[in-house]
Input
Amino acid sequence: MEKNVKLEILQIFKQQVPENAVQYCWDLWHEDPFHFKISHSRKTKLGDFRYRTDQEIQKITINHDLSIYQFLITYIHEVAHHRTFKKYGLKVKPHGIEWKKTFQQLFAPLLSDLVFPKDILLPLKRHMQNPKASSGADFWLSKELRKYDSFQHKAIYLDEIKIGSQFEIKGRQFKKVQPRRTRVLCEEIPSGRRYLISGHAEVKPI
Output
């Protein structure tokens, strides 16, 4: 691997992850290298890994606008995919037991208040006991991670707006009716139909 590529990857980590995680992230890449690219913002995913049998070196991409903590979680998530598919091949489930165990093993050295602030660390430790396919699917972890979103990319979420407020999501308009445990009962405008929507769905207030 060329020296300038190694320095480029190291520089990415210095900019994108907590200081005490920089060396560990670089070591994971150096142990089993892959093409690593910073992507534009994508609404449907924070990062991406796709195993291709026709490529000797695989590729991981991560959105550029994530907080350092979300970037770190996403990076380890995708590295776990890389190592799982390399070890077990295409027949393995993307977020099956093999991936979960790999993710847990890779993440264990980072579960410290030297890396994460305590408000993230507690729900993160719970999350890692049985990791979900996305950190965004974990309500409490997602809620704490949002606090660290940069101002220019600060999202507004359904559980943050008042009851009776109107909002837009994916081009459809709704009114917030009643919160449930992790979902919110909402009424579509103008059909009047009611739906349960995730409380941490990103919305656009009307």
